[in-house]
Amino acid sequence: MSRLSRDDVIEAAGRLFAKQGYHATSMRDLGGELGILGGSVYAHVSSKEELLVEVVQRAGRLFGESAEQAMSSSEHPEDQLKALIRGHIGVVLDHRDEAQTFLNEATALGESNRQAIVGERDTYEALFRSVIADGITEGAFRSDLDANLAATFVLSILNAIERWYRPDGRVDPASLTNDLHRFAISGIS
Amino acid sequence: MSRLSRDDVIEAAGRLFAKQGYHATSMRDLGGELGILGGSVYAHVSSKEELLVEVVQRAGRLFGESAEQAMSSSEHPEDQLKALIRGHIGVVLDHRDEAQTFLNEATALGESNRQAIVGERDTYEALFRSVIADGITEGAFRSDLDANLAATFVLSILNAIERWYRPDGRVDPASLTNDLHRFAISGIS
DNA sequence: CCTACCGATCGGTAGG
DNA sequence: CCTACCGATCGGTAGG
């Protein structure tokens, strides 16, 4: 056993925050997960909230990068929407702990930190809205359903995936992407 | 100010559990909300978890009653699905605190209590699956999308409503029901 | 429902 | 990263 890195500590924190929640996780729990004492965690970070900030920021960065890549992958709203869906699913499934903490524990952040990541999330969600709105303008999607509401529905499905998806289950990521995309597209086109 | 009833206490607990989360709510917080001391809450309940159990059970009962009513309102899967959607939205919007606690804080329950309400929830969700499956059998819905996945998508949207819905916003319950129903139906028919 | 309190646990620190 | 500890807060109780 070599010494722990700061990354090891943040990763373990993400694991526990995702599984038990932020408030139900003590610094002694985290120490136990790492094989050290609770007080020793303070050799790597200066507060418990700093850990939550780091975990949530990682997820925020992953979602942001995914969105950037999805938007530049095509000029067509239909393809952009599919890429956004595929990317979101990828982030949620490849970084479950961070994503779960981001989605469920961000409320535990202090005011200023919380507002910062809410801002990030709003920017991300606005992309879904504008892509759907563009698709309506271009005639690719139908126009009787509000673009904002459609985006909210799609994001609701995406954000719930971590609540039911099992990696060893019958659904694989690629077909989930296809099925969700088809479901969404049928709903709006 | 007359004396508080046990119902008053459970209601206040639901309010705080929904807003701050179970673990972030102390018995002293709850006392403060009620104008009494933290220790005095134990004149009405015998433990903090009992409060959570009561709040979550109330929500469970409401969802169960809504489902029962929806199923007996028609024989046609299409109408039953719409009634299920309408009922779920009604519960979430008319009993926000209980519904929110049910959806977000059930993980804080002890093992046996948690398994009991997970069972209730599974029964409830199974209704959505079977209604959609029936609709496929009868030819009312299309059959290229798995009924289980479609039910999961619809429930994902329903369960996310408490996260974004604002009573003073532009969306009213009836049109939300219509829009979601149309979105779902397009996705499966 | 209050007074007065209990043991346990919490986040965090000084010094090594 | 450990030892040894701090003040604060937690869920909960006996007795009135």
Query: Helix and strand succession of chain A?
Result: HHHHHHHH
Average pLDDT of chain A, rounded to a whole number, is 95
Q: Please state the structural category of chain A.
A: mainly alpha
Greatest chain-chain contact: A-B, 29 and 29 residues
Total individual domains of chain A: 1
Radius of gyration of chain A: 19 Å
Low-confidence spans of chain A: pLDDT under 50, at least 5 residues?
Answer: none
Strand content of chain A: under 5%
CATH homologous superfamily designation of chain A? Tetracycline Repressor, domain 2
Compose a concise summary of this entry.
Two copies of one chain form a homodimer. With 189 residues, the first copy, chain A, is mainly alpha-helical. Chain A has helices spanning 6-20, 27-34, 48-72, 77-94, 96-104, 111-137, 147-164, 173-188.
Would you write up a description of this structure?
- The structure is a homodimer of 189-residue chains.
- With 189 residues, chain A is mainly alpha-helical.
- Chain A has a single domain (55-188), classed as Tetracycline Repressor, domain 2 (Orthogonal Bundle), CATH 1.10.357.10.
- Chain A contains 8 helices and no strands.
- In chain A, helix 1 packs across helix 2, helix 1 packs across helix 3 (48-72) and helix 6 packs across helix 7 (147-164).
- Chain A is elongated, with a radius of gyration of 19 Å.
- The termini of chain A are far apart.
- The model of chain A has no long low-confidence stretch (mean pLDDT 95).
- Chains A and B meet through helix 7 and helix 8 of A and helix 7 and helix 8 of B.
- Chain A binds a DNA duplex (16 and 16 nucleotides) through residues 3-4, 26-28, 36-43, 46-48.
